[in-house]
Amino acid sequence: MRQAAATDQPLVLGIDFGTSNSAAALIGAGGRLQVVPLGEGRAEMPTALFFANETQSVLYGGEAMQAYLAGTEGRLLRSLKSLLGSRLMDEYTAVNGQSLRFYDILVLFFKELKRRCEACAGQPLTHVMLGRPVHFVDDDAQRDAQAQTTLESAARDAGFSRIECQLEPIAAALDYEQRVNGETTALVVDIGGGTSDFTVIRLNPARSHLRDRRADILATTGVHLGGTDFDRLLDLAAVMPLLGYRHQGAGGRPVPNSVFFDLATWHLIHQAYTRRALNFARELRPSYANPVLHQRLLRVLDGQHGHRLLSAVESAKIACSESGRAAPIALDFLGEVLDVGIDAGRLHDALRDSVGQVVQCAQACVRAAGQTSVDAVYLTGGSSALRPLVEALRTAMPQATLVEGNRFGGVAAGLAHAGAAVGG
After folding, report:
1. Between 419 and which of 12, 13, 267, 327 could a Cys-Cys bridge form, CB atoms 3.0 to 4.6 Å apart?
2. What pTM, to 2 d.p., does this model score?
């Protein structure tokens, strides 16, 4: 992309800061869209940081995940977006021998996003259009507003001077609008890592240049469910029983659940490694009728393997969903042979209730728009290809054309278009 002259309009960056992955895009010279290559040969990068103990360095995205999965000594942090709107954002955590707020870690990630985008643009970037879900926090307007304020503050502290926000499903709709030929009523389904968001919107490329599209937005809804929740449910269903989840111990009482829920939730895994949590886990031994399960739990905790477990579950989920065939969950790092995996039946059973909630929210959006049906259902977001979800949406909305969009880059592209429409 060429460098802008001093008289040119400032370039506006669109950033889709996601729970699992982040993406960015720019509108370049002549209105040409450029998706920023944030990862190694990929548009998106995992929303992850790794604090390496030996080198005292910080790695980001794919490099962070690779270092962690290779067994490098350090601390991995993922799903920071899930902390927005919660008290945890202002809490401190130990990384590389120092104590940092989770907010400060969020700023570090935004600084890295800005650096990579500026390297692509060849010039400083000061204006950004950020995506936000319909609801950061369900049923709590104050915490939801606080989440957006925190997101904007992190972008400002990272060096952006002009910051605006757009709903992620509306951004996805603006991206889809570039590919429709005429008037279309679409339900945009944006299934991210932490939220599922929906917009019913009238699209027409003849109106794509307009700054104010509020008249075209017929309804928006959202629910705080997404890919990381699917990972948690599958982890609890397939892997956590190997550590004692739902194990009937002495007297027929089940082992307490809290340690398993922490280990199965991306942004809470670190809590399972605190001294208090480890002592609690060790004291669970009398609650187990099968000591092998307790020994395995302690091996996971002492080795801090929680992220590895969830990564293995996530990989199996994706493989099973894409192929329709059973996929093994690779747990060889635990030092024993464990035959466990995810097949279509387990995928469907474990996610039935959550998928049902997502589809109900989508149907509610259509009803809120005063429609009985829509012309198209446009799928975007990293978890939008999940087979049980796609099948459930097709069943619920048989009259609509199901369109699969850019899972990771669509929202970022729409945010860049939205930024260009407001004139930088």
Report:
1. 12
2. 0.82
